[in-house]
Design goal:
About 85% of the residues lie in helices and about 0% in strands. With about 190 residues, it is mainly alpha-helical.
Length: about 190
């Protein structure tokens, strides 16, 4: 993808990045206002997803056992999902800690990819700083979560909330940069 094509796509869809940013800000505010509820909801949403996904995988593996050579792998995956879902509902504290490490890994990987994208050379550096800062913020956030889990999950929910607000604001700025860059090209 050349710089012109990337800019044209960004110009046409700048508003999607703005919506992403707005949703991140709203999520961050909810996490700050209702941290215990936010943590519990995250754990239960994960548990519900894992449980439903596991049940579906088990059903598909049994129905397709004659058509799938390794149907039993899907069956084991489904059983693992069901177990993970039940654990989330029975022991939400353990699940919250596991979810914390999952979020930490996601933030680190996302941050590295954002930094790489910022330095890919698609747009001038003056327009890429927001993505680079967002990437650095993501990596720092992920590392902090991974090395300081004992500071308390509720305080980490607050960190998630602050991170989401700052990250969302950076995405909103980025969206308007795309919009402005697109307007300048026409």
């Amino acid at each position: 993808m050349n710089a012109i094509t990337g800019t044209q796509v960004s110009r046409n869809y700048w508003w999607t990045m703005g919506i992403r940013g707005l949703l991140a800000v709203l999520f961050g505010l909810a996490a700050l206002v209702w941290p215990r509820l936010t943590l519990l909801v995250l754990v239960y949403l994960f548990g519900a997803y894992a449980l439903v996904d596991g049940v579906v995988a088990v059903i598909v593996s049994i129905q397709e056992r004659k058509n799938l050579r390794y149907w039993w792998v899907l069956l084991l995956e489904g059983i693992a999902g069901i177990i993970a879902g039940v654990i989330a509902f029975v022991w939400p504290g353990i699940t919250a800690l596991a979810l914390l490490y999952l979020i930490a890994a996601w933030a680190i990987v996302t941050g590295i990819l954002e930094i790489a994208t910022a330095f890919s050379g698609r747009l001038p550096v003056a327009q890429e700083w927001t993505l680079a800062v967002a990437g650095i913020l993501s990596v720092v956030f992920g590392v902090l979560l991974a090395v300081l889990p004992g500071v308390g999950l509720l305080s980490l929910v607050w960190l998630i909330g602050i991170y989401a607000i700052v990250f969302g604001l950076l995405l909103i700025v980025r969206a308007f940069q795309y919009r402005t860059a697109g307007t300048a090209l026409t």
